[in-house]
Amino acid sequence: MAEDKAKKAEEAVKEVQEQTPDTEVQETTEKEAKKGVAKAGKRSAKALREAEAKAEKEKRKAEQAESKEEAKPKQVAKPTRSRLERRGKKYRESAKLIEKGKTYTLTEAIELAQKTSSVKFDATVELHVNLNVDPRHADQNIRDNLVLPAGTGKTVRVAVFADDNVKGADLTGIEKITKELDKGNLNFDILIATPANMPKLGKYARVLGPRGLMPNPKSGTVTTDLEKAVEQAKAGRVEYRVDSTGIVHVGAGKVSFKTADLEANIRAILASIKNNKPASVKGSYVKSITLTTTMGPAISVATSEM
Asked: Looking at the whole model, is its pTM more than 0.70?
């Protein structure tokens, strides 16, 4: 039986070979040899056929996507508007009063700042002085405080970190202030302390420091003469410090001030900055002076006003 089955199988193979032309077998073998076709795996004939079919499918998808993109109407790119055009209507109207590229005298700049303030509240007149200093050097880290002749126009709440009652202070008492700090309440604008009580404020440095409320001898808020410090704070003492880019930013008063009062305040600030000029600075000390109001346009002031 087994011999009969083997003979039948041999006869079937011979019949298939006789029916298949030798040229076709040879061509198929040559193609597979050129492609490096393996009997199985990624390089097998079946795998290659699947890969070709997949590539054709991806090509058809890409062609369809391109045809869809071509069918869509092209969007016209709008030109980017300038910074002034993106501002509000009131700001643009105020900016028209300032001549572009012109530097004004201090008096002219103050009068113009008062005209260009379009907000409904009493805006602050801000002074920005760009200095030729490098704040990374200790001697060029400009910092000072002064009492403005006409005041700041702000109602300042002063707290004194001491048990003694101090005339003019809004909040006094070590225990009282400590309880408020523990709750996270900062119901004051300036905190004054004596040198002896400073260690007690050490644990609140992370709360007070970032807000600029930590007492400091350079700003006049660490002193033994508490009454004088409170009086100066109420009278309009301001502190300024050059930022990382070498610019000093100071509030010089309110728009509602008289022009003469604003000029007196600004000249006092400029004189203080000039007196703090480091000896290591060579060449021009002041790069530019700019006057502006809260949410108002900038006005260039002549550096000769320094």
From this structure: no
